[in-house]
Amino acid sequence: MNLSLPPGGVLVGLGCDLVEVQRIRDVLERHGDHFLDRVFTAEERAYCMSMAQPHKHLAARWAAKEAISKTFTTGIGAELSWKSMSIYHGERAEPRVRLDDKAAALLAHVGGTHIHVSLSHTETTAMAVAAIVRA
What we know:
Layout: E1 10-20, H1 21-39, H2 42-49, H3 54-72, E2 85-89, E3 95-99, H4 101-109, E4 114-121, E5 125-134
Antiparallel strand pairs: 1-5, 2-3, 4-5
């Protein structure tokens, strides 16, 4: 078997986040498309909304975006927007991060070359861990 593993390297930044799934479900029910449009890319929306319980998958991506913003030590704001990051699936269905041009420039500025992310969720909680590495 020939698996393409993501590159390793020197750890540049680390972040994690934990969110209550119900919180995301409540916001989705109250704000619907406005919430989805503000926070998630079309790629993320298409995947999550195709799932039987989209709020769990949205919560995991929310946590991933928060974790990534913590790796940069910027939070979500002027330097990094919600939609600067998109979580998608790699060849083995592993979560991967796609950055827009502004976020890619920020990644280079902090000395990183890749972002690794891990997601998980239960009925009540979603979490993510993100790491910026320099190959």
